[in-house]
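Re-run with default settings, no changes from the original entry. Doing this only to confirm the output is reproducible before filing.
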Amino acid sequence: MTNKILIIDSNIEDRERVARHLMENGYNIFLTSFGNKGLMLASNVSIDLIILELNLPDIKGTEVIKCLKDNKRLADIPLVVVSNNNDEIDKFVTFTLGVTDYVTKPVSLRELTLRVKAILKRTVKSDSLMILSNGKIKVDLQSFKGFAFDTPLNLTNIEFKILSLLLKKQNRVLSRDEILQGVWRNSDSANARIVDAHIRLLRKKLGKYKGEVETIQGVGYRMRAHRFSINSDDRNLQDSNLSYVDDEGFVNKFEVSQLS
């Protein structure tokens, strides 16, 4: 499975340079300029490593570190700080907060990539990071909990299984038979009407997000996958296979066959 790396850095030139090099080495990259959006992205996507610049426009990088470490589900994500500051005291403070590594700018791409590879090699992936999300709806496969934009959902076991299946196959139409097979397996008591009934109950619990589960007439159901316009300071990156965070903190993705 390809590792997902989140880069939180307001310097477009620096983060584009790092992002492109890491992508060439096979990593999936998520970008944002803002600490709060980075925290939201880390909560919605199963991130394997975070590269963090301490000087951010909304909150201090140290606050991002503290928020991550205070969250039991996110605390084990490796953190690599990049900074223009080579002061030993600042390094000591960040290491005290629990960061994994500290790299001084200008960053050597080869050195950073080697550090990232070494960190990921020795990091055991936590089951608590098993999250499926379309940006608005998410499920935590470890805790068996569902959320509508961070609002907990009181789901039954069947509803959780249906929601998980739809999220796993998001943007793909699933027939009622596929849902039956995926959720009920070979149960003789299940039929298409049962699927429809549980979808209705699930939508009711999703509230204003019920439209995320679309009905494809005569076929089945589909979970929407979101594509949002990017922030103005990211427009020069549209030619890359990158993911970004929009103004609400949702993931938007651009895919091309190769880098320019």
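Helices lie at 12-24, 35-44, 61-70, 88-97, 109-122, 157-168, 176-184, 192-206. Residues 227-241, 245-250, 254-260 have pLDDT under 50 and may be disordered.
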